[in-house]
Design goal:
single chain, 429 residues, alpha/beta, four-stranded antiparallel beta sheet, 15 helices, 38% helix, disordered N terminus
């Protein structure tokens, strides 16, 4: 990216970058609301043509085959989750057998905790961070209660120094002898900070602490090496950068060293495929992470993921990451030049190896600004108390989108247009 701020903030420069963009062709694969700059792909990715095609194919199969689709569809619904696990493994740097496509993010965390967490009186504490998405914390607290372990004394938070980011050394210092398991995000959902997963996992392994990561804000936009990082488990959603639709089916990773663990929550789709329809009284767990599946998967949701993965894999994750970094880099340069004088602060890390897929801006009137942006057909995301998240998605956003979004932000702040909107909490709409 050019170091000349005058060029970076120029609309002509943005158009030139778009002309040179090797991923520009993928924009036509997505349904972008007309006249809208959509910068909320870190909450819900847009519908792709390939995802739509897969969903419509399964609907046709359902219409013509009925129950026969479980065996006779192409691919068969019965093994569709397993085939998607193979494709997803390539995105997270893992052996296919360590991946299961199943459930939702929170259900997968519950399943992993039920399977791996064993309070023994010595290592009862679960270490997490208060900056994590609240659903993870809700799950951890409820799980501790279910085990008869008091959350008040056995859920410990890594200290944060600014309310937005974490220091790896603080995480490592919190790995005391009574910690048995750690749950952290790969990317912090508010500030967009990317943690050094390799370093943190290495230190946890040295201390014989199980460690897992919520990859919801990194999968599909950042390359992962879960096997090389040697984490014990991971879990994620598929509706952000994987663009698999609202409430899309989730995924999980279980390190091969835990492959023989009996599922904490057993269900018939975690049974060995060869005997699943025997309807036997005894559960025969699959020989890999597939054992952590629970109930029958939503096949329409699997179809959406199948189609969306096709586009992600066609584009290539390395190219996606490179463009994502360039887009967020341009957004930060635009913000520095045009918005900082108006009271906006860029709070996500600046270094490329420290930031995820979105830019986090802080302003005391963030909620009003987000509502004004939406009224101007710029779709951001708000996170309490004062964070504006802008997530330019490499597959369907352009450099011109970034330029237009910041120009609109500048207009709103200079005119005070945002003060016409409510500051009441709730959905920003």
């Amino acid at each position: 990216m050019s170091g000349n701020v005058d060029n970076i903030v120029d609309a002509e420069d943005a158009r030139y970058r778009d002309l040179c963009d090797p991923l520009a062709m993928f924009r036509d694969r997505f349904y972008i609301p007309q006249g809208t700059v959509y910068l909320d792909g870190n909450s819900l990715g847009l519908l792709s043509v390939t995802a739509e095609e897969s969903i419509l194919r399964v609907i046709r199969e359902w219409r013509t085959m009925g129950v026969g689709g479980w065996r006779d569809a192409d691919p068969p619904w019965f093994t569709l989750a397993e085939s998607l696990a193979v494709q997803t493994a390539a995105l997270v740097g893992a052996q296919p057998g360590s991946i299961a496509i199943a459930n939702s993010t929170t259900v997968n965390l519950h399943q992993l905790l039920c399977t791996l967490y064993s309070p023994d009186g010595r290592q009862n504490v679960i270490l997490a961070d208060a900056l994590n998405f609240p659903s993870d914390i809700y799950a951890i607290k409820s799980h501790l209660r279910m085990r008869g372990v008091a959350p008040e004394t056995n859920l410990r938070y890594v200290p944060n120094r600014d309310g937005l980011t974490l220091l790896e050394n603080d995480i490592i210092d919190a790995m005391s002898a009574d910690v048995g398991l750690i749950v952290l995000p790969t990317v912090l959902y508010a500030s967009g900070q990317l943690l050094d997963v390799r370093q943190i996992a290495l230190e946890a392994r040295k201390r014989h602490i199980l460690i897992g990561f919520d990859c919801s804000h990194s999968i599909g936009v950042i390359p992962h090496e879960l096997d090389q990082w040697d984490v014990d488990f991971a879990f994620w959603c598929s509706y952000k950068y994987l663009n698999a639709g609202p409430g899309a089916i989730g995924g999980l990773y279980l390190n091969g060293r835990h492959a023989d663990r009996f599922p904490g929550m057993a269900g018939w789709f975690g049974n060995r495929k060869e005997t699943q329809f025997d309807m036997a009284g005894e559960f025969e767990p699959a020989l890999d992470a597939g054992r952590l599946q629970i109930g029958t998967p939503n096949v329409l949701s699997l179809a959406a993921l199948e189609g969306s993965l096709r586009t992600v894999l066609d584009a290539g994750l390395d190219r996606i990451r490179r463009k994502s970094l360039d887009l967020t880099g341009c957004l930060m340069a635009y913000a520095d030049a045009r918005l900082t004088p108006l009271g906006v602060t860029v709070v996500n890390p600046r270094q490329e190896n420290r930031r995820g897929g979105h830019v986090a801006l802080v302003h005391k009137e963030a909620i009003r600004i987000c509502r004004a942006l939406k009224a101007a057909h710029i779709v951001p995301d708000f996170r309490p108390p004062n964070v504006i998240r802008l997530a330019p998605t490499a597959l369907y956003n352009s450099f011109t989108d970034c330029h237009r979004a910041v120009a609109e932000l500048e207009r709103i702040l200079k005119t005070g247009d945002h003060m016409r909107y409510s500051a009441e909490p709730g959905l920003v709409s």
